[in-house]
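_Backbone structure tokens_
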Amino acid sequence: MTARTENALDFSLRRSGAMMLRYWYLLRSSWPRLLDLVYWPTVQMITWGFLQYYIMQNAGFFARAGGTFIGAVLLWDILFRGQLGFSISFMEEMWARNIGNLMMSPLRPFEFIVALMVMSVVRLAVGVIPVTLLAIAFFGFNLYGLGLALAAFFVNLMLTGWAVGIFVSGLVLRNGLGAENLAWSIMFLFMPLTCVYYPVTTLPGWLQPVSWALPPTYVFEGMRALLIQHAFRADLMLDALALNAVFFTAGVIAFVKLLQSARRAGTLLQAGE
């Protein structure tokens, strides 16, 4: 094993911790950033919550399926905010034109990725925890009442969000800020296919295999099974975990390859379009 390979495999918790501390100081020093983390989840929860309240009053099925809309909204927000929290911390470096400095420092790519993953959890907690408390106060829906199932849902959704965030960060690294819109929009491509608000059987038959190839589909199907049938589908969670292992590995490999390509092309110091 060469010295260069040994250096690439070297991991320093201190370097990752330094990056986490940087993002934490940046976040807590800006009230608009904190407000943005809470604002959109709150708007979504209230909007869909009142819609569900109306449907529960007027449809027998949805009365039996109480909580599915709010549960779907909150779980979707974990998926979306997990990816966005990762991508935004990365974009902060692009906007500050600091990414070239970081890549020339002793910081390893995987240390950078770990720091971004941790910060995505911090951002998610700031935005989602107050909203879950509002869901309890307004609609009597307690997400934490899902128990251990919530942990399985959370882990799988975060792994998917990180996998997508890592891949998008690599694309922005290679192609510059002209690709930054992917950080905001790519997750919405998953929304109709992962069946956030309806079962997979709603999709056309030819599209259902595509849906089942995406890890979040298993989470939302598992959420509906838990709330409607009161049954925790461990098999769905294990299938989602296996797919997430593939997605996450592919995301990391893509990031490393795109980083190498950016270094060869000399785009690390070009943060423009």
The chain has one domain: 31-265. The CA atoms of residues 84 and 162 lie 9 Å apart. The two ends are 39 Å apart (CA to CA).
